[in-house]
Write a structure and sequence with these properties.
There is one protein chain. The protein has 156 residues and is mostly beta strands. It has a single domain (11-27, 61-153), classed as Umud Fragment, subunit A (Ribbon), CATH 2.10.109. The protein is 3% helix and 41% strand. The chain has one helix and eleven strands. It has one helix at 57-61, and strands at residues 11-16, 20-25, 32-35, 53-56, 68-73, 88-92, 102-107, 110-118, 123-126, 135-137, 143-153. It has a nine-stranded antiparallel beta sheet with strand order 1-2-5-6-11-7-8-9-10, with no helix packed on it. Strands 3-4 form a two-stranded antiparallel sheet. The longest helix has 5 residues, at 57-61. Belongs to the peptidase S24 family. Keywords: Autocatalytic cleavage, DNA damage, DNA repair, Hydrolase, SOS response. Residues 34-149 form the Peptidase S24/S26A/S26B/S26C domain.
Length: 156
């Protein structure tokens, strides 16, 4: 059984499914890490002198604690959207599902993460990998947009 790659005490495991492993943020945790400020992606700058601020990851990543969950990605259907096997998704259930957003959806008994495209009588769940087919969702499906992905935590 895998555990998340973030420190104990900042999450509570709630459910494991074949496609996603869900966690809730632990609001009582105090996860403050040093914040460098801005880091240039172009020419280097001496950032060591500016490491005096602290950043609370829960405050940074979690806008609505009661509606926020983490899930670990399993599978490769979203690799071209930057979601790789083992990445941790921050999912906000309070956000409105709109076309173009990446969402965690419950379809006919299983969870999946896909980009959603909403049309008049159909919703498409679009993979970001040509090896996978889009999923056409109609009124005949047991379907819910469970939450919108707001952040991705990845290893590099």
């Amino acid at each position: 059984m895998n555990t998340p790659d973030f420190p104990l005490g900042i999450y509570k495991r709630i459910v494991l499914t074949p496609n996603l492993e869900f966690f809730m943020p632990e609001e009582e945790s105090d996860l403050n890490v040093p914040l460098l400020g801005e880091v240039r992606a172009g020419f280097p700058s001496p950032a060591g002198d500016y490491m005096e601020l602290r950043l609370d990851l829960n405050r940074e990543l979690v806008r609505n604690p009661d509606a926020t969950f983490y899930a670990r990605v399993r599978g490769k259907s979203m690799i071209h959207a930057g979601l790789d096997e083992g990445d941790v998704l921050v999912i906000d259930r309070s956000l409105e599902p709109v076309s173009g957003k990446i969402a965690v959806c419950y379809v006919d008994g299983e969870f999946t993460v896909k980009r959603i495209r909403i049309e008049k009588d159909v919703c498409w769940l679009l993979p970001a990998n040509d090896d996978f087919e889009p999923i056409r969702v109609t009124a005949d499906n047991d379907f819910i947009v469970w939450g919108i992905v707001s952040y991705v935590i990845k290893k590099v």
